[in-house]
Amino acid sequence: MRAGASGEAKRDGMKRDGAAREDVREASADERKRVEEELVDDVEGEDDAREVEYETYAPAHGSIAGGPHPDPVVETGTLAKVRPPVPTYDHAVKDLCESGGLSALQMESVTYACMRHEQRLPGERNERAGFFLGDGAGVGKGRQIAGLVYEHRRRGGSRVLWVSTSADLKYDAERDLNDLNVKPKIDVIPKQAGSMPTGNLNDALTKGVVFSTYSLLTQGTPKITSKLSTTNSEQLLGMIKPGSRLKQFVDWLDEDEYGPLIVFDECHKAKNLFNSSGKPTKTAVCVVALQLAIPNARVLYCSATGASEPKNLGYMTRLGHFGWKDTVDMVEKLKDAGLGALEMFACGLKATGSYLCRTLSYEKAEFELVDCEISDDVRLMYDRSTAFWLMLKRLFDTVEKLRGHGAQEAWQDDNGKEIAGLGRLFWATHQRFFRQMLLCAKVPKLAELARSAVIHENMAVVIGLQSTGEASLTRLQSEEAADGDDDFASSPAEMLVNFVKNNFPTTSCQASVDERRLWDTVVADVVRVVNMWCSQETILDALGQSERRRASTKRRSRERRSTDEWCARECRRSATCRSE
Fold first, then answer.
1. Which CATH architecture has domain 52-360?
2. In whole angstroms, what is the distance from residue 95 CA to residue 423 CA?
3. Domain map of the chain by residue range?
4. Bridge partners of 245?
5. Which parts of the chain register pLDDT below 50?
6. What are phi and psi of 359, to 5 degrees?
7. pLDDT tens across 282-321, in order?
8. Partner residues linked to 558 by β-bridges
9. Is residue 226 packed enough to be buried (19+ CB in 10 Å), middle (13-18) or exposed (0-12)?
């Protein structure tokens, strides 16, 4: 196992993806598809492997207010050759620039976003134009969004919908708004760890920010079918059903006469409007429907990986078609023209003031890979976990063969999709379980490196951890606290328990002799794993905590007695079944 440590630890490289990957609680088809999409998102959207030349970035026009950015910022050589239009917008947040709340390059994006929002796209819908902020980590996308929110309020706007990937990012949004330390203070709902209010949102908030996740945005909307056309506005607007969150948000936003602000943070979550399967994701459809429903909305797209290929541009309907017939025509033409055309399209967006994309410079940065030795307790947990997952896979496979009560082949033919979906869900949970376990194994070494950097090198340390399962862990701790249980909460353990609880296959006790023999084999496998588990030292023993060794030894003794009794019962039951 390896952990990355940056020599320029002061740089904020923390990604805002948070813990979007919630633990699986239902075995429904929609839930399985969501997990699969998240796994695909882990490997998609990565930077092109080709070498890219970068040039030092500074606002192209000196009239942009604001101070210097804390760190050097660069831009790709291709985009650097294009100058954005001369800024003509007179903003109302000069105090933010004077106080240092926003640097000049951060204020630049706020200025161009406001300029775009004052423009209208051609067409009978008369929609406001949108802006795409593609800055990388460290430039301060959250701070720029906060600056735009304050500009919107001071110009007469009252309502903002901020959509992101995780509920935990609400706290980051509140921090970014509060760090600007200006008036009036912007209220954000849901409050603290509460849930989104139901019914009329005016009862909870008339001025401020409603923070939503993409999964909440789709709540209550109809199922996506193959009949849905992504180019048919009426069908897309049909997603906004009474009682849905989408309808709730539209009704609330529509009352902002100035034009509500809609922020799609980490907007790449909506990139699958056009995909190879021909069926769009519900997230993408809801994002497009929301934009269609409120033509007067001021839309901001925000992501460092908003579009890795032309078809990913489909949901950005407010960028315009730039002479093409519609979005589909634009995507098809760019796709046929190749990667060079996509780069030229990005340059065109910048030239029209629709797009900015900067990132931190790593000119003097050092990168080091550090080996993390596996401790005895981690090795023990890993060995036990692999044995358990192997046993669970055999158990699932065996029970699947026994289902159907004498007509297994017919049953499996009728339920092929369900079986395949359960298999994909099993391996998705398996992957996430071990990913989090290995991440935990790196923490002690990471803490050692961080302490050394602070004490011996006088450095500021920023630690970025992705896919930690923090959201599910916080929920689990809250539930255990409510039950009076103060035991250690484990996110991998919770996802395993939820998977087994919601997806464990069941079958009738009716079976043939051969099937009962197969079941006996599974029981023996379970007994073997349990015996192996109980015969090994405990985690506390592996950690060398001698003061608790006696207590753990007694516990193991009780576990062995309990296991022996359980094995005896299973053997008697199995023998009874065979005699019958």
1. 3-Layer(aba) Sandwich (3.40)
2. 57
3. 2-30+367-579, 52-360
4. none
5. 1-29, 31-32, 34-35, 38-49, 405-406, 507-509, 545-552, 554, 559-560, 571, 574-580
6. -150, 165
7. 999 999 999 999 999 999 999 988 777 888 888 999 998 7
8. none
9. exposed
